[in-house]
Amino acid sequence: MTKLELLSVESDAKTIKGNKKGYLTGILYLAPSTEAGGRDLCPMASAECRLACLYGAGMAGVFPSIKRARIAKTLWYLRDPKSFLAALETDIYRLIVLAATRNLKPCVRLNGTSDEWKLARALAAKFPEVDFYDYTKLPAPWKRTTANYHLTFSFSGTNLPECIDALQHGINVAVVFSGSLPATWHGYPVIDGDESDLRFLDPVGVIVGLSTKGDAKKLTSGGFVQIGGTK
Ligand code: SF4
């Protein structure tokens, strides 16, 4: 794992899979929703997605220091966005250099556990040579994408009309399934979203099927976690 000041690089198995496809991913993990107090960083989060958030998955569920570090980053971002943005830019430059030394292309996901599209889009505009991508629950995501800022809409358990709207506008939808992935969801083909996190490489018009992780395994299927097949 490479340590930059704000971005996590190769800190999880899924983004490491992207290396084989030629990309080095940097992810910013903030404290989601109102975890750090103050402004809600996930205004469209559902009660279930808050419970199942990746914020508490993996090593963050084992070591409280990881959550504390994410809260500290979030407080920095909320209290002094200017210096936070400057540090983030430095990290992205470092990621670009690191990727080049390894013959990989850099890509950045700034909302690993938040939904702050303005931050991501501002930085995407500053680094046109880098692919930026995010998952979002904010409606009408097609209005926020750019040539190098890709969005996948996320099913929250309560936003099916917005999901269909997104699909009809060419935005893929991520859905968490218990068991194995179904062939289709509401008539759209389901692809395996756990093969890598490089969402900007996905074909258009698909459901990005994800397996349950962390606290999502404790949720009853039928809402945020949709019922898949038997494994
Ligand atoms: S919207 Fe995403 S990041 Fe925010 S609480 Fe829900 S799952 Fe977590």
Describe the structure.
The protein is of the alpha/beta class. The model has no long low-confidence stretch (mean pLDDT 93). The protein contains six helices and eleven strands. The protein starts with a strand and ends with a strand. Strands 1, 2, 3, 4, 5, 6, 7, 8, 9, 10 and 11 form an eleven-stranded mixed sheet that branches. It has one domain. Helix 3 packs across helix 4 (81-101). Residues 32-33, 42, 45, 49-50, 53, 55, 113-115, 137 line the site of iron/sulfur cluster (SF4).
- Rg: 17 Å
Bound molecules: iron/sulfur cluster
Total of domains? 1
Give me the strand/helix succession: EEHEHHHEHEEHEEEEE
Assign the structural class, choosing from mainly alpha, mainly beta, alpha/beta, alpha+beta, or little secondary structure: alpha/beta
Number of helices: 6
What would a concise description of this structure say?
The protein is of the alpha/beta class and 231 residues long. The chain is 29% helix and 21% strand. The structure holds iron/sulfur cluster.
Fold topology:
Layout: E1 2-3, E2 7-9, H1 13-17, E3 23-28, H2 47-52, H3 64-79, H4 81-101, E4 105-109, H5 117-126, E5 131-136, E6 149-154, H6 160-168, E7 173-178, E8 184-185, E9 188-192, E10 207-211, E11 225-227
Parallel strand pairs: 3-4, 4-5, 5-6, 6-7, 7-10, 7-11, 9-10
Antiparallel strand pairs: 1-2, 2-3, 8-9
Helix pairs in contact: 3-4
Iron/sulfur cluster (SF4) binds at residues 32-33, 42, 45, 49-50, 53, 55, 113-115, 137.
